Amino acid sequence: MKLNIALLAGDGIGPEVIEQAVKVSDAIAQKFGHEITWKPALTGAAAIDAVGEPYPDSTHEVCKNADAVLFGAIGHPKYDNDPSAPVRPEQGLLKMRKALGLFANVRPTFTFPSLLDKSPLKRERIEGTDLVFLRELTGGIYFGEKGRKDNGDTAFDNCVYTRAEVQRLAKKGFELAMTRSKKLCCVDKANVLETSRLWRETVQAMEKDYPEVEVSYEFVDAVAMRLVQWPNSYDVLITENLFGDILTDEASVISGSMGLMPSASMGAEVSLFEPIHGSYPQATGLNIANPMATVLSAAMMFENFGLTEEGKTMRDAVNKALEAGVVTEDLADGGKAYGTKEVGDWLAANI
Amino acid sequence: MKLNIALLAGDGIGPEVIEQAVKVSDAIAQKFGHEITWKPALTGAAAIDAVGEPYPDSTHEVCKNADAVLFGAIGHPKYDNDPSAPVRPEQGLLKMRKALGLFANVRPTFTFPSLLDKSPLKRERIEGTDLVFLRELTGGIYFGEKGRKDNGDTAFDNCVYTRAEVQRLAKKGFELAMTRSKKLCCVDKANVLETSRLWRETVQAMEKDYPEVEVSYEFVDAVAMRLVQWPNSYDVLITENLFGDILTDEASVISGSMGLMPSASMGAEVSLFEPIHGSYPQATGLNIANPMATVLSAAMMFENFGLTEEGKTMRDAVNKALEAGVVTEDLADGGKAYGTKEVGDWLAANI
Ligand SMILES: CC(C)[C@H](C(=O)O)[C@@H](O)C(=O)O
Ligand SMILES: CC(C)[C@H](C(=O)O)[C@@H](O)C(=O)O
């Protein structure tokens, strides 16, 4: 296969972890006879510094014409805690999601046996957890009309969803459930919100097309509780943008493997793959960041091209490294800590 | 003191736990020389069955003219999973909050040493947790304009806040922080929402009036994570209605003492006190429900009248019962389980 991949390294540790994912992907390409062309482009604070905006048109061109986007992380302390600054990296993120039509954010939470003890939850609560959130990413209150009235003393944000938007996301949810344990949970606040009632009735109407999938409907506050109590009782969950933002982050910390969690944002044309961790500015350039989440994101990318064997080979390499203790300091637990680059080299050598 | 208390027992186990709280409150009144007049009124499914609506005008009259409201729980399975039913108990709840102006929901999460092992979190994560959420309860997306367009294919919910609403809630937050460790966390999503930017700028402008309070600003998704990771790093948190709904429920399960957590909803005129647990329909009439959360809610009520000693005496009785193993089956852990009524009797006898 010939693959054109847009490479958005971003800020902080982004470039370092991306470098390792490229290295491991290239090893996969060589082994399986694919040809990857990497197309680097600017994003985030790095792009603001260079050209004054976080998602420049030139970057959009590169992404739009690529077969997929591999993304590092964005964010820089100089933009922190100032949500009213005129230009901020997050705006680039939202603009990119919208412009590329990345409507479904796929966020798995699973456990690695060797990392179970890192979880804040007791072992018996977390063991066996393997769930996936599908978060709607281009609608809802993030993108509705927002503004001020009464000389700035009243603020509003409108949350809007159309039936077609819900169907598009829910379809992915049903399809994913069919490849897993055929359990789907629709998360909403239908006892209060009209948009949630639209979500619920739309999903209910789709149930007949997937007779094998067992669908449950739960309120967002109840899910926020059960995620901490019995995370392993969930499989596939679908939800709207803001609920998804909160719940996927909550879910990410329960496993103890947060630093290893990959994600995908799927669009109709192009999809994007990125680790869920941030840009960890303090670690920039120190060769200590854990590259595994980015490598696993690249694995999701291969799988999304239908290259299942390639994805599995990457995952296996990560598991092997974990077992062999070839890990960065966040996982070293007093043992030897390898550098970001060394872990990348080891993974590439073990493909 | 002469106290007129509206008594809204509600559904399910509501009447049983309320009965115990009344018994213990009466013992307090006798000991400290107060006179309580209880004014029962209908609410929830019970009210729908009786008069066709969940918060009848007659109930509102009783509440409005009372010094405080003591509330059990509402909700009945026949209204579950049908968010589009024409009349539902939750509507009564929202109507009551708005009509009584209950703008600040106070939700403490604390631990009881004897219950620490019931937490899904590891002991070292949860030990020492003692935080309070102030959730705005009569504004935001719950009460903004909502509806459908395009023949029902588009739904919308508008989230609206005024500066005055934020100030009112934040003032309570600063005041509460001053009586505790002087740490206040403002939870918002100011990197995306205009209402959140209004929240943040309003709280920032109030900082100068409380120079001793150290204020932090955190995004709702980050708080959803840190609540699971380091709950004991928080003290007072203030937030808007929907974020508060999700985060207070998440916080309630981390301590292992969920069944014991009280809450208050404060208004300008009258305030309401209720356990955070639900109506547990399955346990109705079985004399097995734990009355302690309702008793602790009554303790908050006394404290809110400035009757600190009375509140403390009730709390001490609950602690004593826990230590003596005078508990309902949810806390019995294989030991002897007392009935709802017996726990109530014991608490009253130990005032
Ligand atoms: C940075 C922010 C705008 C973003 C979001 O809320 O979507 C982030 O929290 C995420 O989840 O990717
Ligand atoms: C029943 C529901 C409307 C209510 C809410 O969302 O406010 C409940 O979840 C709560 O938190 O009291």
**Might you state the CATH topology name of the largest domain in chain A?**
Isopropylmalate Dehydrogenase
- Main beta sheet of chain A: 10 strands, mixed
Taking pLDDT < 50 over at least 5 consecutive residues as the criterion, the unreliable ranges of chain A are none
Q: Structural class from helices and strands of chain A?
A: alpha/beta
The average pLDDT of chain A is: 95
User: What's the level 1 CATH class of the largest domain in chain A?
Assistant: Alpha Beta
Largest interface, with counts of residues having CB < 8 Å to the other chain, equals: A-B, 61 and 61 residues
Widest β-sheet, arrangement of strands of chain A: 2-1-3-12-11-4-5-10-8-9
Hetero groups: 3-isopropylmalic acid
Separation, N- and C-terminal Cα atoms of chain A: 18 Å
Number of helices of chain A: 13
| CATH homologous superfamily designation of the largest domain in chain A | Isopropylmalate Dehydrogenase
Q: Count of DSSP E strands of chain A?
A: 12
Percent of residues in helices of chain A = 40-55%
Proportion in β-strands of chain A: 15-25%
Shape of chain A: globular
Taking all Cα atoms into account, the compactness measure Rg of chain A is 20 Å
Quaternary state reads homodimer
- CATH architecture label of the largest domain in chain A: 3-Layer(aba) Sandwich
